[in-house]
Amino acid sequence: MTxxxxxxxxAAVNAPPATEPxxxxxxxxxxxxxxxxxxxxxxxxxxxxxxxxxxxRSSPFELSPFAKSGPSRLVTLWAPAFTVFGxxxxxxxxxxxxxxTYAPGxxxxxxxxxxxxxxxxxxxxxxxxxxxxxxxxxxPATGMAKRIERGLAFGILALLGWGxxxxxxxxxxxxxxxxxxxxxxxxxxxxxxxxxxxxxxxNEPKARxxxxxxxxxxxxxxxxxxxxxxxxx
Length: 233
Prior knowledge:
This protein is 61% helix and 0% strand. It is built from six helices and no strands. The longest helix has 29 residues, at 144-172.
């Protein structure tokens, strides 16, 4: 009797739970969908870009192939070449006029040749350094070699332009007065310099300094004296 009473509770505990009978589907309701089999989908945000609601438009994260990549060679190369060419041509013409003009009294020239050559070299080097700094601010170059290469490139272009201007002057000078040629060269130098500076200033912040204003005033004074000497001749 004792053994039978002890076996009855343990058998009831270890017995599997009774399954409820399946309920018949209610009329008008759809049967539940079976669970999908397969690997779980990755959560949003773990390296998967969001899908665009407009399949025929590019994703906002993609850049257009026509997007602006940086300043063009017109700004980084030709603009500084124009500025250096303008300064070289201007200084050469102005000093050439002052060196070949006699001072009041006709005893000596206004300037000596050594002073004229020194002025042309100083103005040209200063213009080259300023143009190189402006070009690097607009489009920085990686490494010292790239910077020197760019400076040499537009420096050579400026010198070639100056040589071409001198050849044209020699050809045209036979049929035109010297005063007209000098004035034309001054105007050409001023126009090319202003054009180059405007191209650079479109892509760099405009900053006015006391030194820059002093240089403009000095250039204006030297040009004014050269024009007076030209009119006197």
